[in-house]
Structures are given as structure tokens and as C-alpha cells.
From TrEMBL:
Name of the gene: phoU
Cellular component terms (Gene Ontology): cytoplasm
PhoU domain span: 27-112, 132-215
Entry's Gene Ontology BP terms: intracellular phosphate ion homeostasis; negative regulation of phosphate metabolic process; phosphate ion transport
Family, as annotated: Belongs to the PhoU family.
Pfam families with a match to the protein in the record: PhoU (PF01895)
Protein name: Phosphate-specific transport system accessory protein PhoU
Keyword set includes Transport: yes
UniProt keyword annotation of Cytoplasm present: yes
Keywords: Cytoplasm, Phosphate transport, Transport
Organism: Dasania phycosphaerae
Cited PANTHER family: PHOSPHATE-SPECIFIC TRANSPORT SYSTEM ACCESSORY PROTEIN PHOU
Subunit-level organization: Homodimer.
Length: 238
């Protein structure tokens, strides 16, 4: 098992500095992505086209941050040829920033739907579902990043469990949206915007779970992608 001080005892202080820096840069990117999700949800709930435009514009910065962190990881791999837990750290960061970039993309998609709804006027239905799932996946992103920062596999496992709940909430929300559309065909256009936003939020939850799985891989050295919650819990407990 990896402890929290495992990356601070290298003979080369420069190597320690490089590892700390790339992790810090990943967490900075994570903070911005977390804000993107929150702002995107705000923009669609409040028909705020200005906020939506800001979210879309900031996506370029997130893309640039992903490239930068990936480049840092590549340089460390090439120059330091890390092994064991150091290698897992670099790999986990590289994978996590990819998931963060994808979360940023989903926030951008939600902002696009917010712009469409703002043009048509604030939607009267669907906001309850967006708010509920938006807040839920927002907490998941925050907790996944916190688990990574603290190397907390228990919190990572909890994020994975929350993803299961989000999937159930998403199914319920989709049925509600379909009901709104059948009851009032005039709402179909706006409800489609809501539907695509809900789909993006569900994907945010998926990527938050991925980040949590990277934490378990980093700490336990076990590749836990594509495993069920029961097996995931066994890996955490071992």
C-alpha cells in the first residue's frame, strides 16, 4: 500500500519537486473543472447566457491545462524513468487529467443547452431534476479530487458508490422529462435541451468515478476499471 509520504523521500530533491508540481497542477485543473460544472448548472437553471458563454470560453483553458500536465508527465517518464509507486502516480495523474478534460467538455455542452434555453425563455420544467443531479455530481467531482489529494481510498470507494445512485437518479429524471414532453408537445424543444443536459451530468458522474478508480490504482496498485462495486470494495479493504 502507498502511504502519503511515499513520494517525498527521493535522493534527488528535483525529482520530488517535479512530482509535487505535476500533482499540484492536476489539482489546480481539477478546481477549475469543478467550478465549470457548478457554473454550467447555474447557467441552465437561471437561463444565464453570460455565465454560459464564460463556461464555454474557459473550456479552452482547461484543454490547455490538460496538454500542459500531460507534457509534464511525459517529461518525467522520459527523464526519470520512475518505478513502482512513482510510476503509478504519474500514470494516475495522466489519466485523471483526461477525465477532468472530459468533465470540462460536458460542462461546455450544458452551457450550450443553457444558451438555447435562454433564447427561448427560462424552462418551467426540468429544473428540479437538473439541480438535484447537478449538485450530486458536483459533490462527486469535489470528493474524487479530495480523495486523490489525500490518497483516501475509502472516500474514493464512496464516490464510486455515489455514481450508482446518480445513475438511478438519471433514469428517474429521464422518465420525468419524457412525461413532460408527452403532456405538452409544445415543450418538446426545451425538454430536449434539458434531456441533453441531464445526459452530460450523468457523464460527469462517470468521469468522477473514473478519477476515484485512479486513486485506488495509485494506492493499492490494482487496476479496478470495469469492476463492480463489490469487487471494488474488496480491493480497497485488502
Amino acid at each position: 500500500m502507498l502511504d502519503k509520504d511515499a513520494h517525498s523521500h527521493h535522493i534527488s530533491q528535483q525529482f520530488n519537486t517535479e512530482l509535487d508540481a505535476v500533482k499540484t497542477h492536476m489539482m489546480e485543473m481539477g478546481g477549475l473543472v469543478e467550478k465549470q460544472v457548478s457554473d454550467a448548472v447555474f447557467s441552465i437553471l437561471n437561463a444565464d447566457s453570460g455565465m454560459a458563454e464564460t463556461v464555454k470560453e474557459r473550456d479552452k483553458l482547461i484543454n490547455a491545462m490538460e496538454v500542459s500536465v500531460d507534457d509534464e508527465c511525459a517529461r518525467i517518464l522520459a527523464r526519470r524513468q520512475p518505478a513502482a509507486s512513482d510510476l503509478r502516480l504519474v500514470i494516475a495523474i495522466s489519466k485523471a487529467v483526461n477525465d477532468l478534460e472530459r468533465i470540462g467538455d460536458e460542462a461546455g455542452k450544458i452551457a450550450t443547452q443553457a444558451l438555447a434555453l435562454a433564447e427561448a425563455g427560462e424552462p418551467s420544467k426540468g429544473s428540479v431534476e437538473i439541480r438535484m443531479i447537478g449538485e450530486h455530481v458536483g459533490r462527486m467531482v469535489h470528493d474524487a479530487l479530495d480523495a486523490f489529494a489525500r490518497l483516501d481510498v475509502d472516500k474514493a470507494l464512496e464516490v464510486a458508490r455515489e455514481d450508482k445512485l446518480v445513475d438511478a437518479e438519471y433514469g428517474t429524471a429521464m422518465r420525468s422529462v419524457m412525461t413532460y414532453m408527452m403532456e405538452d408537445p409544445r415543450s418538446i424543444s426545451s425538454m430536449l435541451n434539458v434531456l441533453w443536459s441531464l445526459r452530460s451530468l450523468e457523464r460527469v458522474g462517470d468521469h468522477a468515478r473514473n478519477i476515484a478508480e485512479h486513486v485506488i490504482y495509485l494506492v493499492k496498485g490494482k487496476n479496478v476499471r470495469h469492476v463492480g462495486l463489490t469487487e471494488l470494495a474488496k480491493h480497497v479493504e485488502q
